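User: Hi! I'm working on a homework problem where we have to compare a predicted structure to a textbook description. Could you give me the structure for the chain below?
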Amino acid sequence: MRSASGAFFSGLLFALGLGLGGMTNPSRVLAFLDVAGDWDFRLALVMGGAVAVHAALRPLILRRKRPLFAEHFPTFPARRVDGRLLAGAALFGMGWGLGGYCPGPALTSLATGAPSVLLFVAAMFAGMALARGVQAAVPASGRPAGVFPEGEGKTAGHVDANR
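Assistant: Happy to help. Predicted structure tokens:
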């Protein structure tokens, strides 16, 4: 229960921040992305503020033996910049530029009930399902899923979040 309430309040705080920062307003997002036209710099301040808060608090948080709402800090696999990453980033950017939403603000904007948001979120989930299907059919390594060369076990290449 503690984990669920922590997730709920973190999500609520995130949603409030997105709303107050203007990230749920597609026209503001599109104006921010229009650097060659009538550029609206305000979202850069929102993002800069988020990065500054994270940069200041992360070292303090990682001094703890464990997070408040989990048994341990997560580890993340080390990733290289490859074609799949670049293709995913390009698709994300195109969706953001065309729709004015990225996933967090889109889900937050569902509360408005606007048909454009409902359509965007439906398309977003359809795209996620399609990507999951493609990834299952064509593994990144070219080998069937679950087959690793010697020494590439489940934890190979993971980066410890405590660093």
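For your comparison, note the following. Residues 148 and 154 are 9 Å apart (CA to CA). The helical segments are 2-21, 26-33, 42-62, 83-99, 103-109, 115-137. Good luck with the assignment!
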